[in-house]
Design a protein that fits this description.
This protein is mainly alpha-helical. Helices cover 61% and strands 0% of the residues. It is globular. The mean pLDDT is 91.
Length: 112
């Protein structure tokens, strides 16, 4: 029951971020994602991962969701690079977003 409630609260937060267009930029130097960050910090790593697993393909496909999903990757990733989430998010709608984010980050580091 607790997991179900946590998933509901996570999805509620996800849709709120999308609807209210809250800043979800992990590195924001203007507001520091002041609306999202403290709310997401209330979730455990396991709850964030389970919440990401529960997001629908329609939510993931919405361009307004991308920053929120990536913010969640950073929040849940132990090493802040996403590699440790690959297996846990495998075969979910967000796994493709994670793969693209890791590939983009890897290319950026190698181009520098």
């Amino acid at each position: 029951m607790e997991e179900l409630l946590s998933n509901f609260r996570f999805r509620e937060l996800a849709f709120k971020v999308q609807k209210l267009k809250w800043c979800a930029d992990w590195n924001c130097t203007t507001c520091g994602a002041k609306d999202l960050r403290p709310r997401l910090e209330k979730f455990t790593r396991a709850e964030i991962i389970e919440g990401l697993r529960s997001l629908s393909q329609d939510f993931v496909d919405n361009p307004n969701s991308l920053e929120f999903i990536i913010f969640c990757f950073y929040s849940a990733s132990i090493f802040k690079n996403g590699y440790d989430l690959i297996e846990e998010l495998k075969d979910t709608p967000v796994s493709e977003v994670l793969d693209r984010a890791i590939t983009k980050s890897y290319r950026k580091r190698n181009d520098e």
